[in-house]
Design goal:
The complex is a heterodimer of chains A (100) and B (342). Chain A is mainly alpha-helical. Chain A has 6 helices and no strands. In chain B, the strands form 7 sheets. In chain B, strands 20, 21, 22, 23 and 24 form a 5-stranded antiparallel sheet that branches. A 4-stranded antiparallel sheet of chain B has the order 3-2-1-29. A 4-stranded antiparallel sheet of chain B has the order 4-5-6-7, with no helix packed on it. The longest helix of chain B is centred in the first third of the chain and has 19 residues. The chains are: A mainly alpha (100), B mainly beta (342).
C-alpha cells in the first residue's frame, strides 16, 4: 500500500511539472500580445469567428485609422463590439500591432 | 455533352494546343493569405515552378487573358500589384480606395475589378492600359468577392456586411439588381448554350451549403445543404470565419459543380444541370477555401488554409492525386494560361 502511495505521489509530481499551461497547448498569436482591456475585447469578440492569426497577420502594416477601419468592418460582419469598445480596441491594435 | 459545350471544349483544346505551341503554359496560381508570396503550380507535374514575392497579405488574383500579366490585391498595402507574366517581377503598385479582398478581370483584359471590403464598400475599377484606378463603384456594404460573368456582361459583387449580392452592368458600371439578405460568400456560374448566365450558385454566411439563383428570374430558386456524413467526433468545430461552406466551382465542361465543406474537410460533387449529389466525396485533410480547375476539366485544385496545402484532384475519378505544400494559409486560387515559360 505504501509502495502504491509512493508511486502515486511521484506520478503526480511528474504530471504537475510536465502539465504547465505552456505545455497544455502550443503558443498562439494571443500569447504574443500584452495583457490589457484591448486584448480582452480582441479575444472575446474575434476568436468566435476566426483564429487570432487573421488579426496578427497585419502586424506592422496599419496605422490607427486603418485598424479602426478593420474594427468597424468586423462590427459590420457581426463582431460583438460595442461603441465604447471600438476606440479601446483600435488603440490597442495600433499600439501593439500598428505601423511603427 | 450538347453541341455548344462540345464546341467550347474543342475550342479550349485547340487554344491550349495553339498556346502550347507558342510556349504558353497552364499554371495554377495559389495565393497565401498570411504570407507575402504567391506560388505557381504546373498542373502537368504538380510541382511549384514559380513564385511571386513581395505581395504582403495577398488576397485576390487575376490573370490577363493574353497571358502577359498577373494582378494581386494586397490587403496590407491596400494596393493592386501588377506583375509581369514572364519575369514575375513587379510592374506597378496601384493604390486602392480601401482594403481590398478578391478581384476579377474583364474578358478583354482591359479592366480589373477589386472588391473593397472597407466601409462603406466599393468595387474599384482599374484600367489596365493606364494602370490607374479610374472609378470606384459604390456598393451597399464592403465587397468580399467580385466576379465577371462568363459572358463578360455583368459584374457580380458579394457583400458579407451588406448582406447583399449586387449585379452590375459591365458596360455602364451601374448596379442593375440585387438579391439576398444574408452574407454573400463565394459563387460559381453556370451558363446557357449561348454563353449567358443561367444560374449562380452562391455560398452564404453560416450556411453549410449553397443557394441557387436563376439569373433571368433574378431570384433564389433552391437551397441545397451539404451532407452531414462525418461522425460527430471527427467534425472540425472551427472557427470557420462564419463560412462553413467556402469554395465552389463549376467545371469548365459544365458537367459538374464542386462544393467544399469546412467542418467535414471534404469536397462534394453535384451533377449538372440536374444538381443531383453524386455518391462519394474527396477528403481534403483540412479547411478548404477556394477551388480552381484546369481548362480541360481534368484537374481540380483546392486550397486548404489550415494545412498550408493545395489538394490536386482527378475530376473524372474524383480521387486525390497529391497534396502540394505551399505558403502560409493558402486561400484564393485561379487558373492562368501564361504567355511565357515560368
Amino acid at each position: 500500500m505504501l509502495r502504491l502511495l509512493h508511486f502515486v505521489c511521484i506520478a503526480s509530481l511528474i504530471a504537475a511539472v510536465l502539465w504547465t499551461p505552456s505545455r497544455a497547448r502550443a503558443a498562439g498569436p494571443e500569447d504574443e500580445l500584452p495583457e490589457g482591456e484591448g486584448k480582452k475585447i480582441l479575444v472575446a469578440s474575434c476568436t468566435a469567428c476566426h483564429d487570432l492569426s487573421e488579426v496578427t497577420k497585419f502586424r506592422g502594416y496599419y496605422d490607427r485609422t486603418q485598424w479602426h477601419d478593420i474594427v468597424v468592418t468586423m462590427m459590420d460582419y457581426g463582431a460583438p463590439v460595442d461603441e465604447k469598445q471600438v476606440e479601446v480596441l483600435a488603440d490597442y491594435l495600433a499600439e501593439h500591432l500598428g505601423k511603427k | 455533352m450538347n453541341a455548344v459545350t462540345y464546341r467550347r471544349v474543342l475550342l479550349a483544346a485547340l487554344l491550349l494546343t495553339a498556346s502550347s505551341a507558342a510556349g504558353a503554359q497552364v499554371r495554377i496560381i495559389q495565393t497565401n493569405s498570411q504570407g507575402d508570396n504567391i506560388h505557381l503550380i504546373d498542373p502537368l507535374t504538380n510541382q511549384i515552378v514559380g513564385e511571386v514575392k513581395g505581395v504582403p497579405i495577398n488576397h485576390g488574383a487575376a490573370g490577363a487573358p493574353d497571358g502577359s500579366r498577373l494582378y494581386f490585391s494586397s490587403e496590407a498595402e491596400q494596393a493592386l500589384h501588377v506583375i509581369d507574366g514572364k519575369s514575375l517581377q513587379l510592374v506597378k503598385k496601384i493604390p486602392l480606395s480601401g482594403r481590398p479582398n478578391n478581384i476579377s478581370i474583364s474578358r478583354d483584359g482591359r479592366k480589373v475589378y477589386v472588391g473593397i471590403v472597407s466601409s462603406p464598400g466599393a468595387v474599384d475599377v482599374i484600367d489596365t492600359a493606364s494602370l490607374e484606378r479610374v472609378k470606384s463603384i459604390p456598393t451597399k456594404g464592403g465587397i468580399h468577392n467580385v466576379y465577371v460573368t462568363p459572358d463578360g456582361k455583368y459584374l457580380v459583387a458579394g457583400s458579407i456586411a451588406g448582406k447583399l449580392m449586387t449585379v452590375i452592368d459591365q458596360k455602364t458600371e451601374e448596379p442593375v439588381w440585387t438579391l439576398f439578405q444574408e452574407g454573400i460568400r463565394p459563387m460559381a456560374f453556370e451558363t446557357n448554350p449561348d454563353g449567358s448566365t443561367k444560374r449562380i450558385f452562391v455560398q452564404l454566411s453560416d450556411y453549410h451549403g449553397f443557394a441557387v439563383v436563376d439569373f433571368a428570374q433574378r431570384k433564389e430558386v433552391a437551397r441545397l445543404e451539404l451532407p452531414n456524413d462525418v461522425p460527430p467526433e471527427k467534425v472540425d468545430k472551427g472557427p470557420f470565419n462564419a463560412s462553413p461552406s467556402h469554395g465552389i466551382g463549376v467545371a469548365p465542361d459544365g458537367k459538374t459543380l464542386w462544393v467544399t465543406s469546412r467542418p467535414n474537410a471534404r469536397v462534394y460533387t453535384y451533377s449538372l444541370p440536374d444538381l443531383k449529389l453524386m455518391p462519394g466525396y474527396v477528403d481534403l485533410g483540412g479547411r478548404p477555401d477556394w477551388v480552381t480547375f484546369t481548362p480541360d476539366s481534368q484537374r481540380l485544385y483546392i486550397a486548404t488554409e489550415n494545412t498550408d496545402t493545395v489538394v490536386a484532384i482527378d475530376v473524372a475519378a474524383r480521387k486525390e492525386i497529391t497534396r502540394i505544400k505551399v505558403g502560409k494559409s493558402p486561400k484564393r486560387n485561379i487558373t492562368w494560361v501564361s504567355r511565357a515559360t515560368s
